[in-house]
Structures are given as C-alpha cells and as structure tokens.
Write a structure and sequence with these properties.
Blueprint lengths: L1 E5 L1 H8 L8 H10 L4 E5 L9 H10 L4 E5 L3 H10 L3 E4 L18 H16 L3 E6 L3 H10 L3 E5 L1 H4 L3 H20 L3 E5 L7 H5 L4 E6 L1 H10 L1 H17 L2
Parallel strand pairs: 1-2, 1-8, 2-3, 3-4, 4-5, 5-6, 6-7, 7-8
Helix pairs in contact: 2-3, 2-11, 10-11
The chain binds pyridoxine-5'-phosphate.
Pyridoxine-5'-phosphate binds next to strand 8 and helix 10.
C-alpha cells in the first residue's frame, strides 16, 4: 500500500496572499521524510492553488514520484507530456466546484471521448495513467476498454456518510476494487479520507495506493508536515496488517 500525499492546500494558503510561502516544494520534502510514497498535485485550469512553477520544481526535487492530477484540457496535457511525471490521474474539473465532486462521467459520450484522447496522449508520452472514477461497474469496464493502467476509486461518498450507509459504501468500494483488480487494473482510492475514516478503506486488500490531501495538510498546520504524514502512514500500515 502506497500513501501519496496531496499538497495542493499548502499552495492554497500561499495563494491566499499571492506570496511565496508556504512553498509546496518544501512541503513535499517534509512529506517524503515523513514516509510519503509519492507526491500528488492537481494543476487546475484556473490555477487556484498549484502553479506551473510548482510542478516544474517538484519534478526536479521529488525523490519518490509525482502523481499529476489533471483534467483533459489541452494546455495542461501539453505540460504533462513535456514534464512526464511518474503518473497522471485524469479527473473531471468544474470551475465553480470547491473540490473535485465526482468521478469522470464516462457514460457521457463527450467526456468519454475527451478522456480517451487524453489517456492516449499521456500513454504515448510514456506516463502511467489512472482515471478517477466513481466505484461502479460501468466506469471500471469503460476504464479497461480505454487501456488505463489504474483507476482511482472516488471515496467521497463513503466519507460523507455515516452508520449503515457508510457500511454500504465500504461494500461498494470492496466490490469495485475486486472487479477492477480482476480486470487487471491497478486500484487506487482517495478523496475525503481522514485520520478517523481511512481505516476501512486502507483495509481493502486490492487497493494499492491512497491519495490523501486536505486532512494531512490540516493536521500539518499543528504538528508539522513530517509528523502528520508519519501518523497517517502508521494508521494505514496498521489497517493493512489487521485486515
Ligand atoms: N484524489 C483526487 C483525484 C482528488 O481530486 C483529490 C482532491 O484534490 C484527492 C484524491 C484528495 O482529496 P482530499 O484532499 O479530500 O484528501
């Protein structure tokens, strides 16, 4: 199980003042010291947090691997193909959303086509590809048909529920993870995961990578990035060994 730490919100704090601190590049170094297996950033079309400069510098400084989240937009795809991160995760993007709200809508022909084209460009550039999808059978089968290397299962609905509904969402993630694995996709998961709710997701055996951002950066404000990552990595390790 790999923990990829999403450092977008370090850049959010910086952009609140359009200054040069806190620097996500420094955050990445500390996250790696705390045990992160990789660094995730989302270069949004509106550049609300991560900037092109950040991605360029991270490509030269991150020692683990960079997972670049991006929408199927030509300008960002150009940059991805130039910089060639270890992995690119295609996500849907809406300008007015606070954060990525759902997985790629692969049942919508225009989104399917755009995703297919973007995936082909990234693969041709030698970049490992992942698609951020809702944990449902149709999206998994569409991802296989497109030739994605991995899918990242959206855990937002799980994170937003409680009680019996939460158990149902874990079951849904379990089913999706085992189908994706059976169809030879690597399985990742993320969105809305916290120190309190990560355990049942981390215990799903087919999931090999978690992408966690907001909760880790929030804790890092109080404990420092290195300690915050170390603590999350330890919870994941324990969830796995008790699964
Ligand atoms: N995975 C994807 C595809 C995302 O877009 C995000 C948010 O940028 C995350 C994971 C991390 O979500 P969170 O910040 O809620 O941990």
């Amino acid at each position: 199980m790999r923990l990829y730490v999403n450092i977008d919100h370090v850049a959010t704090v910086r952009q609140a003042r359009r200054t040069d601190e806190p620097d996500p590049v420094r955050a990445a170094v500390l996250a790696e010291l705390g045990g992160a297996d990789g660094i995730t950033v989302h270069l949004r079309e509106d550049r609300r947090h991560i900037q092109d400069r950040d991605v360029r510098l991270l490509m030269g400084t991150v020692r683990t691997g960079v997972n670049l989240e991006l929408a199927a937009a030509s300008e960002i795809l150009d940059l991805a193909c130039e910089l060639r991160p270890m992995q690119a995760t295609l996500v849907p993007e809406k300008r007015e959303e606070i954060t990525t709200e759902g997985g790629l809508a692969l049942s919508v022909p225009t989104q399917l086509d755009a995703t297919k084209r973007a995936l082909a460009r990234l693969s041709d550039a030698g970049i490992r590809t992942s698609l951020f999808i809702d944990p449902d059978e149709a999206s998994i089968r569409a991802s296989v048909d497109m030739g994605a290397d991995a899918v990242e299962l959206h855990t937002g609905e799980y994170a937003n529920t409680t009680g019996a509904e939460r158990l149902a969402q874990i079951e849904r993630l379990n089913r999706a993870a085992s189908l994706a694995r059976k169809l030879s996709l690597a399985v990742h998961a993320g969105h809305g995961l916290t120190y309190e709710n990560v355990h049942p997701v981390a215990a799903i055996p087919e999931i090999e990578e978690l992408n966690i951002g907001h909760s880790v950066v929030s804790r890092a404000v109080f404990t420092g990035m290195e300690a915050a990552v170390r603590e999350m990595a330890e919870i994941i390790r324990r969830s796995r060994s008790h699964a």
